[in-house]
Specification:
- With about 270 residues, the chain is of the alpha+beta class.
- The protein folds into two domains: about 5-55; about 70-265, no CATH class.
- The protein has helices spanning about 5-10, 15-20, 25-30, 30-40, 70-75, 85-90, 125-130, 155-165, 170-180, 185-195, 200-210, 215, 220-225, 255-260; strands at about 10-15, 45-50, 55, 80-85, 100-105, 115, 120-125, 140-145, 145-150, 235, 245-250, 255.
- A hairpin with a 2-residue loop joins strand 6 and strand 7.
- The termini are far apart.
- The relative contact order is 0.09.
């Protein structure tokens, strides 16, 4: 593939991907890669985002103002990156609000990066997934400008944002976003929830599904499977804050009043 063709087909790329496109003769010389990247950067054909990550600038456009897809940037930050949490909701078109922070799960934890007002932050894969080699469980691959992007499925995202609400944008954002989803594969939701092995998270998922039992056609079988793994004693919906609320005996979960009553709906 000619390098010009490579750039036209890769709106965002890594230096390794660029190197793979070189001819054998070019690849033999380590300085060739650096020289070509420097050449295209100087001529405004590519734009450096961070070390090893670049953006292709379409012909006729200015490198400083050409449009850049932040989802592609987030997906390319690490080789194993999976778009997740609120970013996954955005990519699936289900986020209640749009944010300039993009989250991705990875086995590595590079420092947060910023580019044109966007922030890209790494979040570690849940330990249980890493331990069992299940980092990509319930991960979808979607096409974004001809590039495959890995993103947590809506089922996994539901569980993930309940597990780590701070990465989902807070309770109001989470509830409003999830309520816009009309269908979940509930077997997949339950399987992933139990895979995480966290009793509090299991209770959160059970509570949420029970709240939307009719809309999502949640069966007693699904709820029973979750109940078996709920806390034996009351746990707080927000464990770190231990905010007072109403105990939901079915799930042994103390839920803040504003979440229980969805008080934010009053200002719609």
């Amino acid at each position: 593939m000619k390098l010009k063709d490579f750039l036209s087909r890769h709106p965002v790329f890594t230096s390794k991907e660029f190197e793979a496109a070189l001819t054998r003769e070019q690849a033999r010389n380590k300085r060739t890669l650096e020289s070509l990247l420097a050449y295209y950067t100087k001529n405004g054909r590519i734009l450096r985002v961070r070390r090893g990550l670049y953006v292709s600038v379409p012909p006729g456009m200015d490198a400083e103002t050409c449009p850049v897809d932040p989802f592609l940037l987030a997906a390319k930050m690490t080789g194993d990156g999976v778009l997740a949490y609120h970013t996954a909701l955005q990519l699936h078109g289900k986020a209640y609000s749009v944010r300039d922070e993009f989250l991705y799960c990875t086995g590595r934890l590079p420092r947060p990066a910023t580019f044109r007002g966007y922030t890209f932050r790494a979040v570690a894969f849940p330990k249980t997934l890493q331990k069992n080699g299940k980092e990509c469980f319930a991960v979808d691959v979607v096409d974004r400008s001809g590039i495959d992007v890995r993103v947590t499925s809506l089922e996994r995202t539901l569980v993930d944002v309940l597990d780590r609400p701070v990465s989902g944008g807070g309770w109001e954002e989470i509830w409003r976003s999830l309520d816009s989803v009309e269908f979940f594969d509930l077997d997949r939701v339950v399987e992933y929830t139990l895979l995480l092995g966290n009793a509090t998270t299991t209770a959160k998922v059970g509570f949420y599904l029970a709240q939307r039992r009719q809309e999502l056609m949640v069966t007693e079988r699904h709820l029973a499977l979750l109940r078996e793994h709920c806390p034996r004693k009351p746990h707080y919906l927000v464990r770190s804050a231990r905010k007072s609320g109403r105990l939901v005996p079915e799930w042994n979960l103390v839920v803040p009043i504003e979440v229980m009553e969805r008080s934010w709906q009053e200002v719609l």
